[in-house]
Amino acid sequence: MTSPNQVQTADYLMTSDGVRLAVCESGPPDAPVTVVLLHGWVNDMTVWDPVVERLGADLHVVRYDHRGHGKSDPAPHGTATIEQLGDDLAEVITQRVPRGKVVLAGHSMGGMTMMSLAQRHPDLVTERVVAAVFAATSSGKLGEVTFGLPRPVFNAVNKLDRRRRKPKVRTAAPRAAVQAAAKTNKTGKTNKIIANGVVRWLAFGPRPDRAAVRKTLAQMENTDQRSAGGFRRAFGTHELREALAHYAGAKTVVLAGELDRLTPLDHARTIAEATPGAELVIYPRTGHMLPYERTAELTAWIRRAAR
Fold first, then answer.
1. Where is the AB hydrolase-1 domain (predicted)?
2. CATH number, domain at 106?
3. Domain count within the chain
4. 82 within a domain of the structure (yes/no)
5. Is residue 251 situated within a structural domain?
């Protein structure tokens, strides 16, 4: 639990395009270093709870829900983009951390947000950011990820998924199957079991903590689906490798799970190679959800970066 001297305050920040972002701050606001935590796609700021509990009371910590996630407003049409996330981060820093040193730590889409910040607001990065922690993320080529499936199997599944999502496609399912699906949707139990299994396999390494899987599912359910779809499409054009050069003056570490199916190891290696002076750390038998699977190690890296 959070100690009394780590009391957290939660409120909203209004972006320049009128979107309310849910923001939570903890620690002394006049601390010399502020840590800004950025969550991943279909997660929310609560994914950082285990890390924040261990960070200590001497750091000013700012975290928030990306647009379309958690308690923030849905992303207006055309704004569910990585570029917009970079602009949102710039506004969060400008409004909530107007002075002092900044450490950025981003998980998955949060790391992509950091790259977008560097591309669109390079002066903010070079002048304010003293350290960067990229956790289980990617600088591009996400369209080539097969989620651990053999390429022929992935192509077949992807083709079926595209066909299913086409408008005006009629299903030939028997009446009994339709009734069974309706019953399942009413109770939600079967869907929950399936979703739990998919999340365990796709996002975590072996033997994940059950509570962490449940929390991840809850965050997914708390994401605006239209916004999530927009960001998912944006991943296909996400190519920000060159922007990483702007972190040359910051202490940078790239953390990756050996068994990450969403942002595989070669993506972490690309980031480390493109960022001058970056250190690459690979955790064995670990999946994508580093804030849950490697809480202690991730916290230690953030504290080290904030020194």
1. 34-294
2. 3.40.50.1820
3. 1
4. yes
5. yes
pLDDT digits (tens, 9 = 90+) for 287-298: 999 999 999 999
Q: Is residue 300 part of a domain?
A: yes
Q: 12: domain range? A: 4-144+232-305
CA 263, CA 207: separation in Å to the nearest integer? 19
**Structure tokens given for 131:** 């350290």
Give the pairing of strands 60-64 and 251-257: unpaired
Computed from CA positions of residues 115, 62, 286, 225, in that sequence, does the dihedral angle turn out positive or negative? negative
Classify residue 243 by its DSSP letter: G
Q: How confident is the model at residue 188 (pLDDT cuts 50, 70, 90)?
A: low
pLDDT at residue 164 above 80? Answer: no
Q: Kind of pairing, strands 60-64 and 20-26? A: antiparallel
Q: Look at the chain and count its residues.
A: 307
**257 assigned to some structural domain:** yes
- Cβ pair 291, 123 in contact under 8 A: no
Q: How many CB atoms lie within 10 A of CB 4?
A: 7
Q: Where do we find the tokens 């060159």?
A: 242
Residue by residue, DSSP assigns 69-94 as STTSPPPPTT--SHHHHHHHHHHHHH
Among 177, 191, 255, 256, which Cα is nearest to 220's?
191
- Model pTM? 0.88
3-state secondary structure of 280: strand
Write out pLDDT tens, residues 30-41.
999 999 999 999
Per residue in 252-288, pLDDT tens? 999 999 999 999 999 999 999 999 999 999 999 999 9
